[in-house]
Protein backbone atom coordinates (compact mmCIF):
# COMPACT_ATOMS: atom_id res chain seq x y z
CA UNK A 1 0.00 0.00 0.00
CA UNK A 2 1.24 3.49 -0.90
CA UNK A 3 0.32 6.50 1.18
CA UNK A 4 0.61 10.27 1.12
CA UNK A 5 0.60 12.66 4.08
CA UNK A 6 -0.94 16.14 3.81
CA UNK A 7 -0.43 18.64 6.63
CA UNK A 8 -3.15 21.29 6.51
CA UNK A 9 -2.73 24.70 8.09
CA UNK A 10 -1.56 28.14 7.04
CA UNK A 11 0.27 28.45 10.35
CA UNK A 12 2.61 25.66 9.26
CA UNK A 13 3.41 27.42 5.98
CA UNK A 14 4.16 30.63 7.87
CA UNK A 15 6.54 28.81 10.22
CA UNK A 16 4.48 29.57 13.31
CA UNK A 17 4.18 25.83 14.06
CA UNK A 18 6.81 23.15 13.53
CA UNK A 19 5.29 20.21 11.67
CA UNK A 20 6.31 17.16 13.69
CA UNK A 21 3.18 15.25 12.65
CA UNK A 22 4.49 14.30 9.22
CA UNK A 23 7.70 12.89 10.68
CA UNK A 24 5.74 10.84 13.23
CA UNK A 25 3.29 9.48 10.65
CA UNK A 26 5.98 8.62 8.10
CA UNK A 27 7.91 6.57 10.66
CA UNK A 28 4.81 4.80 11.95
CA UNK A 29 3.57 3.99 8.43
CA UNK A 30 6.97 2.56 7.57
CA UNK A 31 6.68 0.33 10.60
CA UNK A 32 3.34 -0.89 9.24
CA UNK A 33 4.94 -1.70 5.89
CA UNK A 34 3.16 1.19 4.14
CA UNK A 35 5.32 3.23 1.76
CA UNK A 36 5.09 7.02 1.87
CA UNK A 37 6.16 8.48 -1.47
CA UNK A 38 4.88 12.06 -1.09
CA UNK A 39 4.40 14.57 1.72
CA UNK A 40 2.92 18.04 1.36
CA UNK A 41 1.73 21.05 3.32
CA UNK A 42 -1.19 23.19 2.21
CA UNK A 43 -2.80 26.29 3.70
CA UNK A 44 -6.41 26.73 4.76
CA UNK A 45 -7.74 27.31 1.26
CA UNK A 46 -10.57 25.33 -0.34
CA UNK A 47 -9.22 25.17 -3.88
CA UNK A 48 -5.71 24.25 -2.85
CA UNK A 49 -6.85 21.57 -0.40
CA UNK A 50 -9.15 19.98 -2.99
CA UNK A 51 -6.35 20.06 -5.54
CA UNK A 52 -4.04 18.36 -3.02
CA UNK A 53 -6.63 15.61 -2.57
CA UNK A 54 -6.89 15.09 -6.35
CA UNK A 55 -3.14 14.91 -6.85
CA UNK A 56 -2.63 12.64 -3.85
CA UNK A 57 -5.29 10.13 -4.86
CA UNK A 58 -3.93 10.07 -8.41
CA UNK A 59 -0.68 8.76 -6.90
CA UNK A 60 -1.90 6.46 -4.14
CA UNK A 61 -4.87 4.85 -2.41
CA UNK A 62 -4.30 6.09 1.14
CA UNK A 63 -4.13 9.75 2.17
CA UNK A 64 -3.69 10.90 5.76
CA UNK A 65 -4.31 14.52 6.71
CA UNK A 66 -3.53 16.40 9.91
CA UNK A 67 -5.07 19.69 10.93
CA UNK A 68 -8.08 21.73 9.91
CA UNK A 69 -10.55 20.16 12.37
CA UNK A 70 -11.14 23.16 14.62
CA UNK A 71 -14.37 25.11 15.13
CA UNK A 72 -13.50 28.13 12.95
CA UNK A 73 -14.54 28.83 9.38
CA UNK A 74 -11.07 28.22 7.98
CA UNK A 75 -11.00 24.67 9.42
CA UNK A 76 -12.07 22.88 6.25
CA UNK A 77 -10.61 19.38 6.15
CA UNK A 78 -13.73 17.31 6.90
CA UNK A 79 -15.95 19.54 4.78
CA UNK A 80 -13.64 19.25 1.79
CA UNK A 81 -13.19 15.52 2.32
CA UNK A 82 -16.97 15.20 2.09
CA UNK A 83 -17.04 17.39 -1.00
CA UNK A 84 -14.25 15.42 -2.68
CA UNK A 85 -16.10 12.13 -2.18
CA UNK A 86 -19.54 13.69 -2.81
CA UNK A 87 -20.76 12.87 0.68
CA UNK A 88 -23.17 14.73 2.98
CA UNK A 89 -22.07 15.94 6.40
CA UNK A 90 -24.00 14.13 9.14
CA UNK A 91 -24.21 15.05 12.82
CA UNK A 92 -22.65 12.41 15.08
CA UNK A 93 -24.50 12.76 18.38
CA UNK A 94 -21.97 10.87 20.58
CA UNK A 95 -19.21 13.22 19.39
CA UNK A 96 -21.37 16.26 20.16
CA UNK A 97 -22.03 14.95 23.66
CA UNK A 98 -18.31 14.38 24.18
CA UNK A 99 -17.48 17.91 22.99
CA UNK A 100 -20.01 19.35 25.44
CA UNK A 101 -18.64 17.24 28.30
CA UNK A 102 -15.02 18.11 27.44
CA UNK A 103 -15.71 21.85 27.35
CA UNK A 104 -17.73 21.59 30.56
CA UNK A 105 -14.71 19.97 32.28
CA UNK A 106 -12.67 22.98 31.21
CA UNK A 107 -15.44 25.34 32.36
CA UNK A 108 -15.91 26.62 28.82
CA UNK A 109 -19.24 27.34 27.16
CA UNK A 110 -20.34 25.39 24.08
CA UNK A 111 -20.90 27.77 21.19
CA UNK A 112 -22.50 27.08 17.84
CA UNK A 113 -19.08 26.80 16.18
CA UNK A 114 -18.18 23.83 18.38
CA UNK A 115 -21.06 21.81 16.94
CA UNK A 116 -19.28 21.97 13.57
CA UNK A 117 -16.70 19.55 14.97
CA UNK A 118 -19.38 16.87 15.47
CA UNK A 119 -20.32 16.68 11.78
CA UNK A 120 -18.68 14.02 9.59
CA UNK A 121 -18.91 12.80 6.00
CA UNK A 122 -21.71 10.25 5.68
CA UNK A 123 -20.49 6.68 6.23
CA UNK A 124 -17.34 7.73 8.10
CA UNK A 125 -15.63 5.73 10.79
CA UNK A 126 -15.38 8.12 13.74
CA UNK A 127 -12.10 8.26 15.66
CA UNK A 128 -12.70 9.46 19.25
CA UNK A 129 -10.44 12.13 20.70
CA UNK A 130 -10.22 12.02 24.53
CA UNK A 131 -7.62 14.80 24.45
CA UNK A 132 -9.59 17.51 22.63
CA UNK A 133 -12.76 18.57 20.84
CA UNK A 134 -11.79 17.37 17.35
CA UNK A 135 -12.60 13.72 16.63
CA UNK A 136 -10.98 12.25 13.55
CA UNK A 137 -12.59 10.17 10.83
CA UNK A 138 -11.93 7.66 8.07
CA UNK A 139 -13.69 7.82 4.70
CA UNK A 140 -13.38 4.89 2.30
CA UNK A 141 -14.84 5.10 -1.23
CA UNK A 142 -13.97 2.74 -4.09
CA UNK A 143 -10.74 1.56 -2.45
CA UNK A 144 -9.63 5.15 -1.83
CA UNK A 145 -9.10 5.88 1.87
CA UNK A 146 -8.92 9.31 3.50
CA UNK A 147 -7.88 9.36 7.16
CA UNK A 148 -8.50 12.74 8.80
CA UNK A 149 -6.60 13.47 12.03
CA UNK A 150 -6.37 16.55 14.29
CA UNK A 151 -3.35 18.84 14.18
CA UNK A 152 -2.06 19.01 17.78
CA UNK A 153 0.42 16.13 18.27
CA UNK A 154 -0.91 15.38 21.77
CA UNK A 155 -4.26 14.60 20.10
CA UNK A 156 -3.07 13.16 16.79
CA UNK A 157 -0.50 10.64 18.04
CA UNK A 158 -2.76 8.78 20.53
CA UNK A 159 -5.55 8.71 17.94
CA UNK A 160 -3.24 7.16 15.37
CA UNK A 161 -1.78 4.62 17.81
CA UNK A 162 -5.08 3.62 19.40
CA UNK A 163 -7.34 3.53 16.35
CA UNK A 164 -5.65 4.03 12.98
CA UNK A 165 -3.01 1.33 13.46
CA UNK A 166 -5.67 -1.34 14.08
CA UNK A 167 -7.65 -0.17 11.06
CA UNK A 168 -4.61 -0.32 8.78
CA UNK A 169 -3.56 -3.74 10.08
CA UNK A 170 -7.05 -5.04 9.32
CA UNK A 171 -7.06 -3.81 5.73
CA UNK A 172 -3.52 -4.99 5.00
CA UNK A 173 -4.31 -8.43 6.44
CA UNK A 174 -1.01 -8.64 8.31
CA UNK A 175 0.17 -8.22 11.87
CA UNK A 176 3.16 -5.91 11.98
CA UNK A 177 5.20 -5.49 15.14
CA UNK A 178 8.32 -3.54 15.99
CA UNK A 179 10.87 -3.46 18.77
CA UNK A 180 13.15 -0.48 19.22
CA UNK A 181 16.58 -0.66 20.82
CA UNK A 182 18.03 2.60 22.12
CA UNK A 183 21.78 3.23 22.14
CA UNK A 184 24.09 5.93 23.45
CA UNK A 185 27.80 6.50 22.91
CA UNK A 186 28.02 5.13 19.37
CA UNK A 187 27.47 7.00 16.12
CA UNK A 188 25.00 5.91 13.48
CA UNK A 189 27.73 5.15 10.94
CA UNK A 190 29.75 2.93 13.30
CA UNK A 191 26.60 1.16 14.43
CA UNK A 192 25.58 0.55 10.81
CA UNK A 193 29.08 -0.76 10.05
CA UNK A 194 29.01 -3.24 12.91
CA UNK A 195 25.56 -4.43 11.88
CA UNK A 196 26.02 -4.10 8.13
CA UNK A 197 25.14 -7.73 7.40
CA UNK A 198 21.92 -7.53 9.38
CA UNK A 199 20.84 -4.17 7.98
CA UNK A 200 21.67 -4.88 4.35
CA UNK A 201 20.28 -8.41 4.21
CA UNK A 202 17.24 -8.08 6.44
CA UNK A 203 13.87 -8.66 4.81
CA UNK A 204 11.57 -10.00 7.50
CA UNK A 205 12.27 -8.74 10.03
CA UNK A 206 13.87 -5.54 8.80
CA UNK A 207 16.50 -3.68 10.82
CA UNK A 208 16.58 0.10 10.40
CA UNK A 209 18.85 2.61 12.19
CA UNK A 210 17.66 6.11 13.10
CA UNK A 211 19.85 8.95 14.34
CA UNK A 212 18.39 11.11 17.10
CA UNK A 213 19.70 14.37 18.51
CA UNK A 214 22.22 12.76 20.90
CA UNK A 215 21.53 9.04 20.65
CA UNK A 216 20.60 6.46 18.02
CA UNK A 217 17.92 3.81 17.73
CA UNK A 218 17.48 0.52 15.93
CA UNK A 219 13.99 -0.53 14.92
CA UNK A 220 13.36 -4.23 14.24
CA UNK A 221 10.09 -4.76 12.36
CA UNK A 222 8.45 -8.07 11.51
CA UNK A 223 5.35 -9.05 9.55
CA UNK A 224 3.39 -12.18 10.27
CA UNK A 225 0.01 -13.77 10.65
CA UNK A 226 0.04 -13.29 14.44
CA UNK A 227 1.83 -11.38 17.16
CA UNK A 228 3.55 -14.58 18.31
CA UNK A 229 4.93 -15.16 14.82
CA UNK A 230 6.28 -11.60 14.76
CA UNK A 231 7.90 -12.04 18.18
CA UNK A 232 9.54 -15.27 17.04
CA UNK A 233 11.06 -13.41 14.11
CA UNK A 234 12.17 -10.39 16.15
CA UNK A 235 13.67 -12.08 19.22
CA UNK A 236 16.68 -13.84 17.56
CA UNK A 237 17.67 -10.63 15.75
CA UNK A 238 17.29 -8.62 18.94
CA UNK A 239 19.53 -11.09 20.78
CA UNK A 240 22.18 -10.91 18.05
CA UNK A 241 22.22 -7.10 18.17
CA UNK A 242 22.50 -7.07 21.95
CA UNK A 243 25.46 -9.45 21.82
CA UNK A 244 27.17 -7.17 19.30
CA UNK A 245 26.39 -3.78 20.85
CA UNK A 246 25.57 -4.58 24.47
CA UNK A 247 27.76 -1.84 25.94
CA UNK A 248 25.83 0.85 24.08
CA UNK A 249 22.25 -0.35 24.55
CA UNK A 250 20.52 1.41 27.42
CA UNK A 251 16.83 0.73 26.78
CA UNK A 252 14.00 -0.49 24.59
CA UNK A 253 10.96 1.02 22.88
CA UNK A 254 9.88 4.26 24.64
CA UNK A 255 12.47 4.13 27.45
CA UNK A 256 14.55 7.30 27.61
CA UNK A 257 18.03 7.39 29.12
CA UNK A 258 16.82 9.52 32.02
CA UNK A 259 13.97 7.06 32.65
CA UNK A 260 16.36 4.09 32.69
CA UNK A 261 18.85 5.74 35.05
CA UNK A 262 16.15 7.03 37.40
CA UNK A 263 14.57 3.58 37.55
CA UNK A 264 17.95 2.00 38.33
CA UNK A 265 18.45 4.43 41.21
CA UNK A 266 14.99 3.77 42.64
CA UNK A 267 15.09 -0.01 42.18
CA UNK A 268 18.48 -0.23 43.90
CA UNK A 269 17.63 2.41 46.52
CA UNK A 270 20.75 4.44 45.67
CA UNK A 271 20.57 7.99 46.97
CA UNK A 272 21.90 10.75 44.73
CA UNK A 273 22.72 14.45 44.66
CA UNK A 274 23.87 16.68 41.82
CA UNK A 275 26.05 19.74 41.61
CA UNK A 276 26.11 21.54 38.28
CA UNK A 277 27.85 24.45 36.70
CA UNK A 278 27.61 24.48 32.89
CA UNK A 279 24.41 22.37 32.77
CA UNK A 280 22.60 24.70 35.15
CA UNK A 281 20.27 22.07 36.63
CA UNK A 282 19.60 19.98 33.50
CA UNK A 283 20.95 16.80 35.11
CA UNK A 284 18.72 17.23 38.15
CA UNK A 285 15.71 18.10 35.98
CA UNK A 286 16.18 14.96 33.87
CA UNK A 287 16.10 12.79 36.98
CA UNK A 288 13.20 14.36 38.87
CA UNK A 289 10.74 13.78 36.01
CA UNK A 290 10.62 10.11 37.13
CA UNK A 291 7.76 9.24 39.52
CA UNK A 292 9.09 8.16 42.91
CA UNK A 293 12.52 9.73 42.45
CA UNK A 294 11.97 11.73 45.66
CA UNK A 295 12.80 8.56 47.57
CA UNK A 296 16.43 8.74 46.40
CA UNK A 297 17.09 12.23 45.01
CA UNK A 298 18.30 14.37 47.90
CA UNK A 299 19.54 17.65 46.47
CA UNK A 300 20.47 19.46 43.29
CA UNK A 301 22.83 22.42 43.52
CA UNK A 302 23.71 24.93 40.78
CA UNK A 303 27.13 26.44 41.52
CA UNK A 304 28.14 28.80 38.74
CA UNK A 305 30.52 30.93 40.75
CA UNK A 306 33.75 29.83 42.39
CA UNK A 307 32.39 31.11 45.68
CA UNK A 308 29.36 28.83 45.48
CA UNK A 309 31.55 25.83 44.64
CA UNK A 310 33.60 26.53 47.76
CA UNK A 311 30.58 27.21 49.96
CA UNK A 312 28.30 24.37 48.84
CA UNK A 313 30.73 21.56 48.02
CA UNK A 314 33.85 22.51 49.91
CA UNK A 315 35.98 22.89 46.78
CA UNK A 316 39.38 24.20 47.86
CA UNK A 317 40.28 27.73 46.83
CA UNK A 318 43.80 26.53 46.06
CA UNK A 319 42.40 23.98 43.62
CA UNK A 320 40.38 26.66 41.82
CA UNK A 321 43.35 29.03 41.72
CA UNK A 322 45.73 26.40 40.41
CA UNK A 323 43.57 24.48 37.91
CA UNK A 324 40.59 26.73 37.22
CA UNK A 325 36.89 25.97 37.61
CA UNK A 326 36.82 23.88 34.43
CA UNK A 327 39.19 21.08 35.37
CA UNK A 328 39.42 17.46 36.38
CA UNK A 329 40.41 18.43 39.89
CA UNK A 330 37.45 20.74 40.50
CA UNK A 331 34.93 18.27 39.03
CA UNK A 332 36.37 15.67 41.41
CA UNK A 333 36.10 17.89 44.48
CA UNK A 334 32.59 19.02 43.51
CA UNK A 335 31.29 15.46 43.28
CA UNK A 336 32.93 14.31 46.49
CA UNK A 337 31.97 17.46 48.36
CA UNK A 338 28.25 17.39 47.54
CA UNK A 339 28.07 13.64 48.24
CA UNK A 340 29.51 14.17 51.72
CA UNK A 341 27.40 17.27 52.37
CA UNK A 342 24.18 15.44 51.49
CA UNK A 343 25.25 11.97 52.68
CA UNK A 344 24.32 10.29 49.40
CA UNK A 345 25.60 7.13 47.73
CA UNK A 346 26.11 8.91 44.42
CA UNK A 347 26.82 12.42 43.23
CA UNK A 348 27.19 13.92 39.76
CA UNK A 349 29.17 17.07 39.04
CA UNK A 350 29.45 19.04 35.80
CA UNK A 351 31.76 21.91 34.96
CA UNK A 352 32.58 23.24 31.51
CA UNK A 353 32.48 26.00 28.93
CA UNK A 354 29.20 26.00 27.03
CA UNK A 355 29.81 29.24 25.15
CA UNK A 356 29.25 31.21 23.11
CA UNK A 357 32.02 33.15 24.88
CA UNK A 358 34.60 32.31 27.50
CA UNK A 359 36.74 29.84 25.61
CA UNK A 360 40.54 29.99 25.24
CA UNK A 361 43.12 28.01 23.30
CA UNK A 362 43.85 25.94 26.39
CA UNK A 363 40.22 25.59 27.38
CA UNK A 364 38.03 25.93 24.30
CA UNK A 365 34.25 26.16 24.13
CA UNK A 366 32.87 22.66 24.54
CA UNK A 367 35.43 21.53 27.10
CA UNK A 368 33.52 19.72 29.85
CA UNK A 369 34.39 17.60 32.89
CA UNK A 370 31.87 15.23 34.42
CA UNK A 371 32.51 13.84 37.89
CA UNK A 372 30.81 10.80 39.38
CA UNK A 373 31.08 9.90 43.07
CA UNK A 374 29.69 6.41 43.67
CA UNK A 375 30.03 4.47 46.90
CA UNK A 376 33.31 6.19 47.82
CA UNK A 377 34.92 5.96 44.38
CA UNK A 378 35.33 8.99 42.11
CA UNK A 379 35.75 9.03 38.36
CA UNK A 380 36.07 12.07 36.11
CA UNK A 381 35.58 12.09 32.35
CA UNK A 382 36.78 14.83 30.01
CA UNK A 383 34.89 15.77 26.83
CA UNK A 384 35.29 18.22 23.99
CA UNK A 385 31.80 18.79 22.63
CA UNK A 386 30.78 20.78 19.56
CA UNK A 387 27.62 22.75 18.86
CA UNK A 388 25.82 25.71 20.35
CA UNK A 389 25.32 26.37 24.04
CA UNK A 390 22.15 24.31 24.43
CA UNK A 391 23.58 21.38 22.49
CA UNK A 392 26.72 21.30 24.63
CA UNK A 393 24.61 21.37 27.79
CA UNK A 394 22.36 18.59 26.47
CA UNK A 395 25.34 16.42 25.48
CA UNK A 396 26.87 16.94 28.90
CA UNK A 397 23.66 15.91 30.64
CA UNK A 398 23.17 12.80 28.53
CA UNK A 399 26.79 11.71 28.92
CA UNK A 400 26.62 12.21 32.68
CA UNK A 401 23.57 9.96 32.85
CA UNK A 402 25.18 7.35 30.64
CA UNK A 403 28.37 7.26 32.70
CA UNK A 404 26.27 6.83 35.83
CA UNK A 405 24.26 4.04 34.15
CA UNK A 406 27.45 2.09 33.43
CA UNK A 407 28.81 2.63 36.92
CA UNK A 408 25.60 1.39 38.54
CA UNK A 409 25.73 -1.73 36.39
CA UNK A 410 29.26 -2.40 37.69
CA UNK A 411 27.95 -2.37 41.25
CA UNK A 412 25.67 -5.32 40.52
CA UNK A 413 28.20 -7.48 38.66
Automatic annotation (TrEMBL):
Pfam families: CinA (PF02464), CinA_KH (PF18146), MoCF_biosynth (PF00994). CDD domains: cinA. Residues 4-171 form the MoaB/Mog domain. SUPFAM superfamilies: CinA-like (SSF142433), Molybdenum cofactor biosynthesis proteins (SSF53218). Belongs to the CinA family. This is Putative competence-damage inducible protein. It comes from Clostridium sartagoforme AAU1.
Amino acid sequence: MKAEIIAIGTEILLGDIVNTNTQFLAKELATLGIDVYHQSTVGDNEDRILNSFREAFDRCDLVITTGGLGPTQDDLTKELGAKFFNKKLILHEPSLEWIKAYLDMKDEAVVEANKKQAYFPEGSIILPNPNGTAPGSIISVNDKILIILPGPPREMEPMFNNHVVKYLENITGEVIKSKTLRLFGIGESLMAQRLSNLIENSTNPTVAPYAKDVDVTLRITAKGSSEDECNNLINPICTEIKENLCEYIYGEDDESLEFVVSKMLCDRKLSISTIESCTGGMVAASLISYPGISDVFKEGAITYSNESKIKRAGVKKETLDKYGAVSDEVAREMAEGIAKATNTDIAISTTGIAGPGGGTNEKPIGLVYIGIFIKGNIIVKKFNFTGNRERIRKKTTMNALNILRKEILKLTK
